[in-house]
Design brief:
10 strands; 13 helices; Nucleotidyltransferase, domain 5; alpha/beta; 2 domains; five-stranded mixed beta sheet; globular
Length: 284
Amino acid sequence: MLLIADSGSTKTSWRFIDEDKRIHSFHSLGFNPFFWTSAEISKEITIKCSKKLKEQIADSSTQIYFYGAGCSSKHRIKIVRNALKKVFPKSKIEVEHDLLASARATCGSKKGIAAILGTGSNSAYYDGEKTIRQRGGWGYIISDEGSGAHIGKKLMQDFINENLPAELYEKLYKKHTLTREKVVQSVYNKPYPSRFLASFAKFVHENIKEPYCSSLVKKCFSEFIVNHICRYDDYKELPMGCVGSVGFYFQDILREVANENNVLLGKIIESPIEELVKYHLKVK
């Protein structure tokens, strides 16, 4: 039996495949071990996983594959592993970075370049088994080119500096009752500033027919591809698979930018969880 989890900073999608190959789903908050303790993670899983399902998993030698944002060092992997072991003591547990989830979901067992374009962004070279080189993933302050946070940050800069087209400025102001003070407080004094910035990607998508919005997204994607994807030696030969809501909902512009830079696009999916289920059932 298998339990597969894909955890971002906001939400974790869980799939349990029982011995009859039936798939059971549940969701929990996303837990990044940069910010969550083992005790907090185990408590969240216990709350969101039904008692019946938890007992079924706990009373068996279920193989657990957990893919999560922030699971990039032995220390942070241990935080998540300890939490899972507390809830599911008999299970075999593997904790991996979310980049590997993107790679397995979009490339399967073939070589490729894995990309994440969601609230944040990241990329890695995938040899068909593991990610061996990484570019990007430095967070919204330093880079995160092409991400929702990057798009939102650029939009907020133009809003604060009054560089938006007048109609778009008024529409943004009225929709979110934005003020300079609200933006500054949300970015510098409140938790999860990257989520706040990324939330404005939806506004950009709603107004994508406006030349300003389409140009903004194109510039952000161009920075991501030029700064990261085009730095891989054989980027012209290998497909780039992409996971994340930003890449998925703006995929027409992503394809345009990729073509301009001779990047071959592979699968573009919003969430990797269903493809991860297929991957693990196939390789089991």
